[in-house]
Amino acid sequence: MRLLINLAIAIAVAVIVGFGSAALVLDRERLFGAVTRGAWTAWPDTGSPDADPYTAAMLARTGEVPLGAGEGLAFSAEADGAGARLSGSCTYRISGQTPPARLWTLTVYDADGHLMDNPAHRTAFHSREVLRHEDGSFTISVSRAAQPGNWLPVTTTEGIRLILRLYDTPLAGGARVGAVVMPALEKAGCP
Amino acid sequence: MTRFARRNGIRTLLYILGGLLLGGIIHIAVILLLPDFANRDAWTSLGRFGPDGAFHRLPMSEPGTEPLPYLDPQMAYAACRFSLDDGPIRIKATMPEDFWSIAVFNRRGSNVYSLNDRSAERADIDLVIATPVQMAQLRENPIAALDQSIVIEVPITRGFALIRSFVADPTLVGRAEALLGAASCSAELPSDDTPPAADPGEKP
Fold it and tell me: Span A107-129, mean pLDDT?
C-alpha cells in the first residue's frame, strides 16, 4: 500500500514537472539566443540550421515561419523602452534610425498575433514609404487615434506587439548584432 | 517521530526525487518530440493550399485572412512542399526587380537554407535542391543544363520552400502574384543531352 502511494506521488510529480515545465517554457518567450537592444529583441539563430530544440518546438507549435539568415532579421517588441508592456490604449512613438538594411518593414499585431483591420487600411510601414525628417530619421506613431505624420493604427485596447523586420541586413545570421542602434520606442501618453 | 515513520518519510522523499528526475526526462522528450506531433505547424498549414510538388500562392496577409501567423503584410508569398525521395527538385521562378528571398525549411519548420536577390546576384530563381547522395551523383554526372543553377545540398528528404516577394504598394500585388503563380518546383531535371530550355523571362 505504502509503495503504491509512493509510486503514485512519484508519477504525479514527474508528470506535473515534465509537462508543466515544457508548457511553461514554450508559452514564455524563447529563452536562448535572444539579442536585446533597447525595447527590441531578435533571435538570430531562429532562421539558421542550428536553431535550438526549444525554438524548433516553438515554431512547430505556433506554425510560424522564421526569416532565414540569408533573408533578414526580425526584431520584436512587446514592451516600451521603459519596460512597460505595450497596450493598444496608449500612444507610442518609434523614432530614430534602423540598423543597416536594404529594406525594413514595421508591422503591428494584436495580443494574439493577428493584424488589425482599420479604416486607414494600414497594418505596416516600409522603409520607402515612411515620411522622414531632414536628417533621414523617422517617427512613427502607434495609436488608436489618428496621428499626424506616420500613423500606424491599432484597434485593440489589449496588448500589442511590434515587429521590425530588416531585410537583407548584415546583422542576420549570427552574433554580428553587436552594438547596433535600434529606433527608440517611447510611450507618448495614455488617455 | 518513530524510527519507522522517519524511514517512511525518507522513502517518500526519494520517490519525489525520482519523480523530479523522471519529470526532467519527460520535459526533454516533450520538447524534442513536439515538432513531430504538432498539427498546427507550418508544414501542415501549407498543405491546405494545394498538392505537394508545386508552388501555391498564399493569399496576401490581411486582417482576418493571414495564411500563416506573423507573416509580413508587405510581402507576397508562395510555398511548395517537396519530397526528395524521387530525386532532386528544381525551383524556377522569374522574380520582380525588387527585393525577394527564398528559404528552405525542413519538415519540422526549421530553416535549412536561405537566399535573397542580392546574394543570388540574379533576377530569377533557379535553385536545385538535393540530398547529399543526390549531390554526389550530380557531381559525378553533371547536367549541362544546370550549369547556371544554384545547387544546394540539404540534409533533409521532405520540406518546403517559401518565396517572399516585396510588394511596395498595393498596385504591385497583381504583378507579384502573377510571377509567384508561375513559379515551378519540379522533380524533373533536364537530362544531359537536351539543350537547356530557353527561359522566356531571362534577361539578355
Answer: 91
Among B26, B163, B172, the residue to mutate for chain A (most A Cβ within 10 A):
B26
Q: Which cell numbers in the block locate residue B23?
A: 519529470
Range of the domain at B16: 1-37
Domain A34-189 part of CATH 1.10.390.10? no
Question: Which of A175, A177, A174, A170 shows the shortest CA–CA distance to A101?
Answer: A170
Where do the domains of chain A lie?
Answer: 1-30, 34-189
- Do B157 and B124 lie in a common domain? yes
What is the percent of chain B where pLDDT is above 90? 36
In chain B, which among 73-132 make CB contacts under 8 A with chain A? 73-75, 99, 101, 103-105, 108-119
Cell output for B104:
528552405
3-state secondary structure of A110: strand
Half-sphere exposure of B136 (CA within 13 A, CB side): 3
Q: Are B45 and A39 in contact (CB under 8 A)?
A: no
Instruction: Return the residue matching grid coordinates 525542413.
Output: B106
User: How many domains does chain B fold into?
Assistant: 2
pLDDT, tens digit (0-9, with 9 covering 90-100), for B125-172 = 989 999 999 999 888 888 877 878 889 999 989 999 999 999 988 888
Of B38, B63, B101, the CB nearest to A70: B101
Contact A109 B23 (CB under 8 A): no
Q: Specify the DSSP element, H or E, that contains B75.
A: strand B75-83
Prediction ipTM score: 0.85
Say yes or no: B25 and B51 in one domain. Answer: no
Q: Each residue of A135-178: pLDDT tens digit?
A: 989 999 999 998 988 999 999 999 999 999 999 988 775 546 66
Measured between CA atoms, the residue of chain B closest to residue A69 is B114
- Asked, for residue B126, whether it belongs to a domain, the answer is yes
- pTM for this prediction: 0.86
